[in-house]
């Protein structure tokens, strides 16, 4: 949202919900330099990098251009090296590539085949404090899937005893597997969504030994890759998951807690991190008409806080004012604009959203925003419109980044500015009909022959994926 990196056609541009794709150099001369791993096309993995304040990113720099369309995962070491695991197109071979960080630059290494005997997917990677790498993946075997785990002690040059070695097979014969490998101080944990009906865990000492038997942490209908796990500094293993509602539970080394419901709405892309030992969850929930809002919640007591929007300007519109130039009357349609009821956003003087030259729509928020979703029950025809913001003294016209829009498409996702960093720095609040907001004004320049009527207007984008730096 803050800075646009790329246009992408990939189905999994940021990996699966629990994947890692955004990292920051933790210390040293280049402390704070960030790297983002992205699928720029269904076949191409690439990375971008930037320094503070992260408004201008360098890239894309290609990592591998023959990937499968499936998700990837990545991890950064304490020295700034980044390891990416993914499925290559050659028979869906699980592979890894190391980006070596040297003198402020990441150098792309060779592709290393982790396992090449059967098609494999859904890789998850972690690195221990000793530098040992761990990868978990789903191997297609016969008519089902096996859960496999392999390690590398030489910086990803080799995995296990070679590419024909499946590693440790934790469980077999599942219809679906989506794993997440997580390391605590003394143990390796693999949590995985199994058979689309549960989340299970198996663990092993980092020092060696056998993996534990499979333990079901929670049953969840239709559970897929959309879950995340993390370990706090004091060793608490947390899990966030759910398809019908967002839930959290944790393991204290002895028992799993009962799941807590964070949000009753259908969640997507849950991301978990611990901030000062407190579990913090960032996720999206679906709104009407395929729109989504990004939220966060935090637990500092027994319960999680009430979920709040992560970005104040990416939500339902706080205010929507319609101005009829003939009568000089404003109408407040904020409540109607927030709902998906058909054809209820119109000025009572004209029975239209806008009609003649001089009519105006004012979309307002307490925070700056960059996007409008406009759903019309009746599309306009024959008229033209102009867009403006207030700079403290005058209304300044601009052409939206998404192109001109004359209220003539029934369902339009209008990008006002390409990212938050592109929002004009001189945009100021001003009062409209007694309400002080950041306003985007849509002014009719030429009269409509067929006047538009709206069903819904929001500042929410159709967010498809989310990746938090953790």
Q: Can you count the beta strands?
A: 34
Poorly predicted parts: none
What percentage of amino acids are in beta strands? Answer: over 45%
Q: Rg, please?
A: 25 Å
Structural class determined from secondary elements = mainly beta
**Terminal Cα separation, in Å?**
18 Å
Largest sheet: 7 strands, antiparallel
- General form: elongated
Helicity range: under 10%
State the gist of this model.
It contains one helix and 34 strands. By secondary structure, it is mainly β. It is elongated, with a radius of gyration of 25 Å.
Write the layout of secondary structure elements.
Blueprint lengths: L21 E3 L9 E6 L5 E6 L7 E7 L8 E4 L5 E7 L4 E10 L2 E11 L4 E8 L5 E9 L2 E9 L15 E7 L2 E7 L3 E8 L3 E8 L9 E5 L8 E4 L5 E5 L4 E6 L8 E4 L3 E9 L2 E9 L5 E7 L9 E2 L9 E6 L4 E4 L1 H5 L21 E6 L5 E8 L5 E7 L4 E4 L12 E5 L14 E3 L2 E12 L6 E6 L12
Antiparallel strand pairs: 1-2, 2-3, 3-4, 5-6, 6-7, 7-8, 9-10, 10-11, 11-12, 13-14, 14-15, 15-16, 17-18, 18-19, 19-20, 21-22, 22-23, 23-24, 25-26, 25-27, 27-33, 28-31, 28-34, 29-30, 29-33, 32-33
Name a few traits of the molecule:
mainly beta
Write up this protein:
The protein is mostly beta strands. Helices cover 1% and strands 47% of the residues. The chain is built from 1 helix and 34 strands. Strands 25, 26, 27, 29, 30, 32 and 33 form a 7-stranded antiparallel sheet that branches. The longest helix is centred in the last third of the chain and has 5 residues, at 334-338.
């Amino acid at each position: 949202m803050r800075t646009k990196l790329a246009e992408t056609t990939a189905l999994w541009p940021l990996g699966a919900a629990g994947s890692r794709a955004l990292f920051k150099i933790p210390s040293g001369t280049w402390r704070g330099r960030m790297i983002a791993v992205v699928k720029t096309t269904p076949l191409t993995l690439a990375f971008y990098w930037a320094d503070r304040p992260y408004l201008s990113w360098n890239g894309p720099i290609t990592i591998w251009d023959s990937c499968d369309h499936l998700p990837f995962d990545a991890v950064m070491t304490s020295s700034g090296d980044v390891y990416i695991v993914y499925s290559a197109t050659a028979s869906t071979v699980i592979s890894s590539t190391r980006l070596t960080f040297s003198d402020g630059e990441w150098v792309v290494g060779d592709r290393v085949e982790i396992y090449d005997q059967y098609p494999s997917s859904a890789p998850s990677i972690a690195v221990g404090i000793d530098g040992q790498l761990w990868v978990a993946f789903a191997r297609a075997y016969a008519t089902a899937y096996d859960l496999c785990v392999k390690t590398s002690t030489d910086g990803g040059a080799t995995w296990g005893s070679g590419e024909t070695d499946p590693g440790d097979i934790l469980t077999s014969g599942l219809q679906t597997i989506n794993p997440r490998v997580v390391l605590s101080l003394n143990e390796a944990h693999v949590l995985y969504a199994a058979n689309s009906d549960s989340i299970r865990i198996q663990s092993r000492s980092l020092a060696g030994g056998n993996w534990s038997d499979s333990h079901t942490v929670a049953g969840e209908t239709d559970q897929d890759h959309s879950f995340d796990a993390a370990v706090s500094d004091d060793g608490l293993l947390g899990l966030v998951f759910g398809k019908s509602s967002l839930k959290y539970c944790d393991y204290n080394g002895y028992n799993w807690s009962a799941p807590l419901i964070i949000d009753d709405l259908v969640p997507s892309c849950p991301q978990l991190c611990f901030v000062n030992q407190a579990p913090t969850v960032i996720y999206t929930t679906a709104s009407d008409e395929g729109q989504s809002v990004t939220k966060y919640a935090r637990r500092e007591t027994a319960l999680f806080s009430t979920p709040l929007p992560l970005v104040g300007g990416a939500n339902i519109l706080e205010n929507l004012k319609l101005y009829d130039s003939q009568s000089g009357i404003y109408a407040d349609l904020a409540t109607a604009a927030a709902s998906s009821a058909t054809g209820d956003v119109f000025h009572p003087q004209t029975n239209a959203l806008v009609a003649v030259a001089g009519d105006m729509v004012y979309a307002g928020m307490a925070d700056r925003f960059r996007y409008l979703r406009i759903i019309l029950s009746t599309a306009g025809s024959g008229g033209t419109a102009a867009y403006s913001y207030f700079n403290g003294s005058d209304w300044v016209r601009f052409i939206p980044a998404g192109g001109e829009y004359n209220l003539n498409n029934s369902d339009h996702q209008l990008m006002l500015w390409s990212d938050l960093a592109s929002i004009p720095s001189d945009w100021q609040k001003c009062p409209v009909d007694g309400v002080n907001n950041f306003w985007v004004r849509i002014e009719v320049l030429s009269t409509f022959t067929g006047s538009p009527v709206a069903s819904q207007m929001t500042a929410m984008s159709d967010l498809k994926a989310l990746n938090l730096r953790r």
